[in-house]
Amino acid sequence: MYLMYVDESGDVGLHNSPTRYFVLSAIVIHELRWRQTLENLVEFRRFLRDSKGLKLRDEIHCTELISRPGDLIRIKRNDRLDIIKKCIDWLNIQTDLNIFSVVVDKQGRTDDIFQLAWNTLVMRFENTISNKNFRGPSNTDDKGIILSDNTEGQKLRTLLRKMRHYNTIPNNSRFYESGYRNLKINSVIEDPVFRDSQYSFLHQMNDVLAYCVRQRYQPNSYMKKKGGNNFYKRLENVIVKEVTSRNTFGIVEI
Question: Residue 122 is part of a domain; what is its CATH number?
Answer without folding.
Answer: 3.30.420.10
